[in-house]
Design a protein that fits this description.
386 residues, alpha+beta, Rossmann fold, OB fold (Dihydrolipoamide Acetyltransferase, E2P), 2 domains, 6-stranded antiparallel beta sheet, 8 helices
């Protein structure tokens, strides 16, 4: 296992700064996911950790040792790519065996003809075979060892790529969007397999993805990257329930969080679309965004009741979404409901409400605003909501 520490990592390509001072500590045996929109720098950061891309400034430490300038192979990290990077002319066995043969055989012993006569080669090959077969059994690849990549499914090729990484016994694994080439059903299956693999190996996993479902279901922590910065780090539940930046609130969660235009009055009271919410904040008076997750939207009356018109319905079987057009809001609001209930008709008027605990408020700079419910004396309750 390995603790990986990044300090003030910056990376510039030409005149464009991609990474803008990244500080991150990844603990021994942790499964951390780096998520964010395309172009935010997450894959570049992974390549910096691997040593495939030198940082412009900053420091990388693995197990307490500074590794800047050390070649990738010496960092003892295994990387699994989106493309799998398998050798098409080699069998599954030989693909998995490649890193062991590169490490244990001399250049002469690896030559096709002369290498077979090299002293000690047969014994080394027996050891390699034992290790490859052990890893293949662990990944349920034993029956496929004689096949070539072109004869495998996408999920099988992914497992071969993971097996080639495991057989090296690295101190950590780096995954660069490894499931993005798979279909939706197989991605769900492979998420479970990778999570189980992490529990078995107890190794450090750093996983880059733009798919938040992968990050939320597999990792112990997620780091949300936007515009070359890590904007928030926490457990999946913490980041989802308590985003500290509106960009995090809008990126994490599917479908996207509802954002309503709000106002902080001079007396600290909060309003949405001219309706008081019965909440107060010490924030400066001015405009704000009041955000509510679709599953916290209620059809009917509530403290934040607003009126709109149903413009679209989505029944997905296990859940349904009601799209509601509201005056002065550009995008329809979404409410997630049980499909068992009677869904409103398209074009019908409807009331939407939400509880005070469902609200997350952000200022014009996108930063989280603490809010609280006022008590009868006019004072603000000390404990903030959300």
């Amino acid at each position: 296992m390995a603790k990986i520490e990044l300090s003030a990592i910056r990376k510039t390509f030409d005149s464009t700064e991609i990474l803008k001072g990244i500080d991150l500590a990844i603990e021994d045996g942790e499964f951390i996911a780096l998520i964010g929109p395309s172009g935010c720098g997450k894959s570049t950061l992974l390549r910096v950790i691997a040593g495939l891309e030198p940082q412009s400034s900053g420091e990388v430490r693995i197990e307490g040792v500074q590794v800047d300038g050390i070649r990738p192979s010496a960092r003892n990290l295994a990387m699994v790519f989106q493309s799998y990077a398998l050798y098409p002319h080699l069998t599954v066995f030989d693909n998995i065996a490649v890193p062991l043969r590169m490490r244990r055989h001399s250049a002469l012993a690896r030559t096709p003809v002369v290498g077979r006569l090299h002293p000690g080669r047969a014994g080394t090959e027996r050891g390699i075979r034992e290790e490859v077969e052990r890893v293949a059994a662990q990944l349920e690849l034993s029956a496929l060892l004689k096949r070539k990549p072109g004869q495998l499914s996408g999920g099988q090729r992914q497992r071969v790529a993971v097996g080639r990484a495991i057989v090296r016994q690295p101190v950590g694994f780096l995954f660069d969007e490894p499931l993005s080439n798979l279909d939706a059903k197989l991605r769900v299956h492979m998420r479970a397999e990778l999570a189980q693999l992490h529990r078995q190996l107890k190794a450090t996993f750093v996983y880059v993805t733009h798919d938040q479902a992968e990050a939320m279901t597999m990792s112990s922590r997620i780091a949300v990257m936007i515009g070359g910065h890590i904007v928030q780090i926490g457990t999946p539940a913490e980041v989802y329930e308590n985003p500290q930046d509106i960009r995090v609130a809008e990126f994490v969660g599917s479908p996207k969080i509802n954002a309503l235009p709000g106002v902080v009055r001079d007396d600290g009271g909060l309003e949405v679309l001219g309706r008081p919410l019965g909440l107060s904040t010490p924030a400066t008076a001015g405009r704000c965004s009041v955000c509510v997750r679709p599953e916290r939207m209620e059809l009917g009356a509530g403290p934040g009741t607003i009126t709109g018109t149903v413009v679209h319905l989505e029944n997905l079987g296990a859940e349904a979404f009601v799209h509601v057009r509201v005056d002065r809001i550009d995008q329809p609001l979404l409410a997630r409901v049980s499909p068992d209930r009677q869904l409103p008709a398209i074009g019908s008027p409807i009331h939407l409400g939400f509880s005070a605990s469902a609200i997350r408020v952000f200022d014009t700079a996108g930063k989280r605003i603490e809010v609280a419910a006022p008590i009868r004396s006019g004072r603000v309750r000390e404990k903030a909501l959300g």
